[in-house]
Each structure stands twice: as C-alpha cells, then as structure tokens.
Amino acid sequence: MLKRSFDILFSLFMIILLSPVLILTALLVKFTSKGPVIFKHKRVGLNGKDIFVYKFRTMVPDAEKLGPGLTERNDSRVTKFGKFLRRTSIDEFPQFFNTLFGSMSVAGPRPEIPEIVRDYSAFQRQVLALRPGITGFPQINGRADLTIPKKLRLDVYYTKHQNICFDIYIIFKTIIVLFTGKGAF
Fold first, then answer.
1. Does the residue 39 lie in any domain?
2. Domain count of the chain?
3. Nearest-CA neighbor of 77 among 88, 89, 65?
4. Is residue 163 part of a domain?
C-alpha cells in the first residue's frame, strides 16, 4: 500500500512538473514525422497479465512491418527526433500515466513483450510478481548495454529485495544515468 501510494503521488507530481515537456514533445513528434504522437505497445505486467505501455512515438509509422521486432542500435526505423527522445528517455515520460492508473510502478522490473515472456524460465517468471516499472535495477546498471538474461537476473534480484528505500535509490540513480546517457540508444 505504501508503494502504491508513493507511485500515485510521485507520478502525479512528475506529470505536473513535466507538463511543459510533455506538451512540447507531443508537438515536436507530431510536426517532425507522420503518425500518432503516442505509441501504445502490448507488454506483460503484474501476474502475467497483458498491459499497454504508452511512449512517445520514436519510430516511423508501421515500423514493425519494416524490420526486426526489437530495436537495435542505429535502427533505421527510428526518426531523427526519436533518437533524441530515446537517448534522453523522454519517450518514456507518458508511462507516468500508466503508473498513475495502476498498470505500472515508478520502480520495478521493466515490462517485456509477450513473445519474450513466453520463453521465461521459472526463475525469470518471478519478475511478474510485481507491477512493472518505468525504471528499475537494470536501468541503473547498464540499460540497453545488458543482455536480456542479465536484465532479468537484476530484475529478479530487485523482486527479492524490493522496498521503498531501494525504490528511492533506483529513482535517484536513474536521474544520474539519464544525464549521462549511458546505455541509451
């Protein structure tokens, strides 16, 4: 209950604080490329239930039809402005709405696509015991530089050691990582 209360208050605070950035980003996404401003993607959330995660669109419309399902470094499907959004993680800001409405948490295991979750081992499935997070332990320990198995090991570690102090630590470290851009693409 403490974690959920923290998530609601923190998300509401961030939405208010970031509202000028959210509005400006939405306008720039709209005016720099065709297609919707928000990208809605199916992921697996708490207890293995499907959720939709919202992000600012960083790729060309219908990108899934043009290449691999997972984004790779120097992916030609990513728009010029999308590269900036990904590098700064601004594309993730709409997930504060996911958190406010209860499908995500501020800190927790990152939500993964159903195709990857299907192949999780029993050990890896432990991450589904918590709401997925906007940020998490892997995001402060390498982000995109980590393999999926390494990310999952860090997420399972978080699952076993999760508490409000650990969440606050992850949030503060995330801010530092965002300013360095380390592990982002």
1. yes
2. 1
3. 65
4. yes
Range of the domain at 162: 2-179
Contact (Cβ atoms closer than 8 angstroms) between residue 54 and residue 39: yes
Cβ contacts of 151-156, under 8 Å, gap ≥ 24: 151/110, 152/120, 152/124, 152/127, 155/109, 155/110, 155/127, 156/123, 156/124, 156/126, 156/127
Q: What pLDDT does residue 51 have?
A: 97
Q: Is residue 14 part of a domain?
A: yes
Contact 125, 58 (CB under 8 A): no
* pLDDT tens digits, one per residue of 78-103: 889 999 998 889 999 999 999 999 99
pLDDT digits over 164-182, tens only?
999 999 999 999 888 876 6
Residue at 185 is within a domain: no
